[in-house]
């Protein structure tokens, strides 16, 4: 089978970075669908053969199918890839409730967007379907929209049941650091293979799954570290003290927020370089008094000036510590380990582990893209100049690292060609982890039966 036959459709395409890996593995995207037109423009700039469908897929999914048939003809696509929004899966913010609170899970309509994936899959009948999301996707409960009476189910289980008549499902839960991605990024994947595909029998006979073998592990001590990744990028030094020092004129995306002479800069500078330390633990004050302070102190007991910690000043002039998570916020990244997960909040000093390991600044979008394994020749167009760093950081944070999708895509392309190349074992612990997580999202009446 030639590469020309490997036509593909992308749903929730973001900027197209994740699909770039599948494209490098031989899949040609004919249609890309994304609600944000500006993101879609970036995706299309990097997938020149694709037709774009902007808008909310709950209303445009029929247009996606019609566009594919116009572009590729009556044959089904080889691949449908989809990355539904993950924000509604998180339990980190108030109002979203606990993972087992199905009513709270259903308040965010994004948690049920797997229905769109099923509609397109059951309409186009692609040979393969791949869905990526955060780990909570496998177990975060919502109310089953098919039931008249509310019944809890996870989005992943709902999708599996909607596709079950025509597809075999292979869930996978992995840290992408195990695939050479220089960050800790735990993500869930569900790969569906159409039941008439010989690949299902081939996988069963070989004891394999449609995912690539890992290339690294914490146990083997060969994860790619942040230090190694930054050295490979070899970007110029930056400093948040001034506009001039915070920007590289030769690389516009290599720039960071300017803190100038305010408290944030002095707070970050007080965290020892390469320590992985937290501003919460700093004992120095603005006057650098040498005194003992308590873990909950906001001001120096000697001079009453604020400590170089995350503090805010109240209306009466007093200071208190910022209310928030102290485990990983206002922290330097550890250079000797993979970077923490690159998120949409990489431009905020108070977000989890966003401070550069040894320079007094955040990571730049240029560095974040590199840690996401987005190639340097990726075409961002004028997005950075026109929309600003925040919008670009959001696209980067929501991307699927193309280093993994290329490896995954090569396994999938081989399967469609009748070969088992580079596929992981069905006994891989990542399968068991996914099954365990999915079990938490099963409807109660099936939970024990499927244990």
Features:
Rossmann fold, 15 helices, 2 domains, 451 residues, alpha/beta
Describe the model.
By secondary structure, the protein is of the alpha/beta class. The protein has 15 helices and 13 strands. The chain is 30% helix and 14% strand. It has a seven-stranded mixed β-sheet, with helices on both faces. Strands 6-7 form a two-stranded antiparallel sheet. Strands 10-13 form a two-stranded antiparallel ribbon. A hairpin with a 5-residue loop joins strand 11 (311-313) and strand 12 (319-321). The relative contact order is 0.15.
Please give a quick description of this structure:
The chain has 451 residues and is α/β, with parallel strands linked by helices. The protein contains 15 helices and 13 strands.
List the helices and strands and how they pair.
Blueprint: E1 7-11, H1 17-24, E2 28-34, H2 37-46, E3 51-54, H3 57-72, E4 79-82, H4 102-106, H5 114-124, E5 128-134, E6 141-143, E7 152-154, H6 155-163, E8 167-175, E9 186-194, H7 199-206, E10 208-212, H8 226-233, H9 263-269, E11 311-313, E12 319-321, H10 365-371, H11 383-387, H12 389-397, H13 402-416, E13 423-425, H14 429-440, H15 444-447
Parallel strand pairs: 1-2, 1-4, 2-3, 4-5
Antiparallel strand pairs: 5-9, 6-7, 8-9, 10-13, 11-12
Helix pairs in contact: 1-13, 3-5, 5-6
């Amino acid at each position: 089978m030639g590469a020309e036959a490997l036509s593909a459709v992308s749903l929730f395409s973001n900027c197209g970075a994740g699909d770039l890996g599948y494209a490098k593995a031989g899949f040609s995207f004919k249609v890309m669908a994304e609600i944000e037109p500006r993101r879609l423009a970036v995706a299309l700039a990097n997938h020149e053969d694709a037709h774009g469908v902007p808008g909310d897929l709950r209303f445009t999914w029929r247009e996606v199918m019609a566009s594919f048939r116009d572009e590729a003809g009556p044959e089904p696509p080889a691949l449908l890839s989809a990355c539904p929004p993950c924000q509604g899966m998180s339990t980190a913010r108030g109002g979203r409730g606990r993972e087992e609170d199905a009513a709270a899970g259903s308040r965010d309509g994004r948690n049920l967007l797997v229905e769109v994936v099923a509609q397109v899959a059951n309409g186009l009948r692609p040979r393969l379907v791949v869905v990526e999301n955060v780990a909570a996707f496998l177990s975060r409960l919502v109310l089953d929209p098919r039931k008249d009476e509310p019944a809890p189910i996870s989005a992943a289980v709902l999708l599996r049941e909607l596709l079950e008549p025509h597809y075999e499902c292979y869930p996978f839960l992995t840290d992408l650091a195990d695939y050479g991605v220089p960050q800790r990024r735990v993500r869930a994947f569900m790969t569906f293979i159409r039941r008439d595909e010989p690949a299902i029998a081939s996988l069963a006979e070989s004891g394999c799954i449609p995912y690539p073998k890992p290339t690294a592990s914490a146990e083997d001590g060969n994860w790619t570290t942040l230090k190694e990744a930054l050295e490979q990028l070899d970007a110029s030094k930056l400093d948040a003290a001034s506009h001039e020092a915070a920007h590289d004129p030769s690389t516009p995306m290599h720039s960071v927020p300017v803190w100038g002479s305010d408290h944030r800069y002095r707070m970050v500078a007080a965290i020892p370089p390469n320590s992985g330390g937290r501003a919460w633990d700093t004992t120095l004050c603005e006057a650098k008094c040498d005194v003992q302070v308590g873990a909950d102190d906001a001001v120096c007991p000697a001079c009453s000036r604020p400590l170089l910690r995350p503090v805010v000043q109240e209306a009466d002039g007093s200071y208190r510590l910022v209310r928030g998570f102290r485990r990983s916020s206002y922290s330097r990244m550890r250079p000797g380990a993979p970077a923490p997960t690159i998120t949409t909040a990489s431009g905020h000093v108070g977000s989890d582990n966003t401070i550069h390991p040894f320079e007094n600044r955040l990571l730049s979008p240029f560095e974040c893209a590199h840690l996401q394994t987005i190639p340097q020749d990726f075409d961002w167009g004028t997005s950075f100049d026109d929309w600003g760093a925040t919008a670009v950081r959001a696209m980067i944070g929501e991307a699927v690292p193309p280093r993994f999708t290329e490896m995954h895509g090569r396994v999938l392309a081989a399967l469609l060609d009748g070969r088992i190349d580079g596929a992981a074992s069905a006994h891989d612990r990542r399968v068991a982890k996914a099954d365990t997580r999915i079990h938490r999202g099963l409807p109660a009446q099936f939970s024990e039966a499927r244990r």
